[in-house]
Amino acid sequence: MSNDFKVTDNFFYSEFWSNNFGKPKVEPPEKYFNNVAYIANKLQIVRDKLNEDFKPKKEIYILITSAYRTPEWNASKSVEGANDSKHLRAEAVDSRAVGIPLFIYYTYLIRYTDFNHLGYYKAKNFVHAGIEDKITVFKY
């Protein structure tokens, strides 16, 4: 699929592709597209709500720092991801909302989505949100 394909009004498919050691990013396998679309739609809900609440003061956008990861990228020194990371199946996204405190963004994810796998990385300035059949909340 084209990297300029818009999954939602504000999220391009390519934003969810794996980093690749300075080479072109790697598209997720087609079987994971529904996971990407699900996550993108949930993030769109949060982005819309943030902009509804914070406009006209400023435009809020969401920066995706990691979504799908290849096994090689997940195991790299840059990531050191878990062996069974949800990122390997495009079931998770790491992100932050630019222009507002991380904790506010985190609370919007909790309040306006059904993500059940949530992590708060204050020192690294991102939150982790994932698809899970049970509630898992963690903090680093």
Tell me what you see in this structure:
The chain is α+β, with helices and mostly antiparallel strands and 140 residues long. It has a single domain, classed as Muramoyl-pentapeptide Carboxypeptidase, domain 2, CATH 3.30.1380. The protein has 3 helices and 5 strands. It has helices at residues 33-54, 71-75, 102-112, and strands at 61-66, 92-98, 117-121, 126-130, 136-139. It has a 5-stranded mixed beta sheet with strand order 1-2-4-3-5, covered by helices on one side. Strand 3 and strand 4 (126-130) form a beta hairpin. Helix 1 crosses helix 3 (102-112). The radius of gyration is 14 Å and the shape is globular.
Q: Sum up the overall morphology in one term.
A: globular
| Top CATH class | Alpha Beta
Examine the coordinates and then state which fold CATH places here, giving the name of the CATH topology.
Muramoyl-pentapeptide Carboxypeptidase, domain 2
Given as residue ranges, the uncertain stretches (5+ residues, pLDDT < 50) are none
**Strand tally:** 5
Secondary-structure-based class equals alpha+beta
Distance between the ends: 35 Å
Task: Work out the helicity level.
Answer: 25-40%
| CATH architecture assignment name | 2-Layer Sandwich
Number of structurally distinct domains: 1
Mean pLDDT: 94
Number of helices: 3
Cross-sheet strand order for the largest sheet: 1-2-4-3-5
Q: What's the gyration radius in Å?
A: 14 Å
Order of helices and strands, N to C? HEHEHEEE
